[in-house]
Design brief:
The protein is of the alpha+beta class. The protein has a single domain, classed as Beta-Lactamase (2-Layer Sandwich). The chain is built from 4 helices and 5 strands, in the order E-E-H-H-E-E-E-H-H. This is YALI0E03520p.
């Protein structure tokens, strides 16, 4: 199973992206997306932004569950209070672990946002942030 994570800013700009695989059931953490899917993943998530915004306007929940699909791939989303979208492209329905993953990623993003050296909508290039995202993926996905 493969996952593609994107944190999208308030101006629909990508702040952070990461592709990874599962560690469950003997997985090694490497993505198994086909070459075509690797190229399409950013476009699929970008196309789902309208669905995320539409779903978010109808609810007061931060975790929006599955908002869109593309063939056998699903798009789940989490919207922060500051209108930052955390989106995940995945192949399976494991809602509870994805919800927990989103909550942890949200906490990590808020900690980054509290840094005096980070500004909203600025790309996150920290190797520490990257490593923590990978460890969260290993824990939950």
């Amino acid at each position: 199973m493969s996952y593609y994570l994107a944190i999208v800013g308030t101006e629909d700009n990508p702040i952070y992206t990461q592709e990874f695989g599962t560690y469950r059931q003997g997985g090694d953490g490497n993505s198994r997306f086909s070459p075509e899917m690797k190229e399409l993943a950013p476009f699929i998530l970008h196309a789902a932004i309208d669905m995320v915004e539409q779903t978010a306007s109808r609810t007061n929940q931060l975790y929006l569950r599955t908002v869109d699909n593309f063939y056998s791939h699903l798009v789940s989303a989490f919207v922060t209070a500051g209108d930052i979208k955390i989106m995940l492209l995945h192949e399976t329905r494991n809602e509870e672990s994805i919800r927990q993953f989103f909550q942890e990623v949200h906490d990590l993003y808020v900690k980054t946002l509290l840094s005096p050296f980070y500004f909203v909508n600025q790309p996150i290039t920290s190797p520490v942030f990257d490593q923590r995202i990978k460890s969260l993926a290993k824990k939950y996905l």
